[in-house]
Amino acid sequence: MVSRIVVREAVPDDAEEVAKLIARLKALNEELDPHYKVVDNIDEVSMEYVREMMESGKARVLVAVDSAVGSIVGVLIYRIVDRRFYVPRVKAQIVDFYVLPKYRGRRIGTLLLEKAAEMAKGDGAGMITVIYPALNTIAGRFYEAKSFIDLAHEKYKRIY
Amino acid sequence: MYEPGIIVRRPVEADLGRLAELVVRFYRFNEEFDPAWSVMDNAEERARDVAKRYIEGEGYTLVAAHDEELAGYIHAYIAEYPMLELSKQAVIQELYVKPQFRGRGIATTLLEHLISEASKDGVKVVTSMFPVANFVAEKFYKSRKFRPYISIYLREV
Description:
Number of domains of chain B: 1
Helix content of chain A: 25-40%
Largest sheet of chain A: 5 strands, mixed
CATH architecture of chain B: 3-Layer(aba) Sandwich
Helix content of chain B: 25-40%
Radius of gyration of chain B: 15 Å
CATH class of chain A: Alpha Beta
Distance between the termini of chain A: 49 Å
Oligomer: heterodimer
Strand order of the largest sheet of chain A: 1-2-3-4-5
CATH class of chain B: Alpha Beta
Number of strands of chain B: 5
CATH topology of chain B: Aminopeptidase
Number of domains of chain A: 1
Number of helices of chain A: 4
Shape of chain B: globular
Largest sheet of chain B: 5 strands, mixed
Strand content of chain A: 15-25%
CATH superfamily of chain A: Gcn5-related N-acetyltransferase (GNAT)
Number of helices of chain B: 4
Order of helices and strands of chain A: EHHEEEHEH
Strand content of chain B: 15-25%
């Protein structure tokens, strides 16, 4: 199964397919926690975001492609962050990670994560972190299984 | 708990598009928990057929309407078990409330209305089916006095 999945860095022509996956990820986050209510023009915003990430010198967009059908079935985006006060000073922070449901259980998430770690090392990162909604336990279980540990907490209070 | 402005009723013809959207959202959410729940590529088209059947009276279907919008819906079918004392059961196949309407008791209201309708038809037990990993549904039903009842095992062939 895994043999026909190719993990590579996204190219500009991938933007539309990647944006669809990002929109699905955001919709899932909304389902799991209404505090993550998505904007009405989520498709448009996702497209804009993906293009920005691809063009940014401070982020990388990786995709998993099902070579049998030529479509993108998973995406991982990480940003390079300068931890000015700490060692290691540079971290790769995964900000988006999504695999289409029907492709789950085939280690595609693991392949994306391994590729991200390898590329992040090349980007000078000494650690890899991830940020995701607290109620997204699907993500939580995945990262726990990959030996990630808690590093920071983000609290929320509505002010309007 | 009743949310002001929410009306629970049976779906009508004019609800078709909005009900179909809710059906798609229900299945898309559940497919996130188990690849075996992956929806068809033409989910939107199929959902219209499903919604049409619900509107025509298949099983029990109720919608929670808020002005021109549908906040959520519930659908159950009747399962007959002739050998069991609790022979006539209503099985909740779908229950969905849009994220922006959550936390207002709408799902509970839909559930209670459905139980009330089904009990008038001689139903003694209401059950619900959802992916094992859907912790949102599990929490909801457990807090409303449901308990695990049937296990379904799957093997792809």
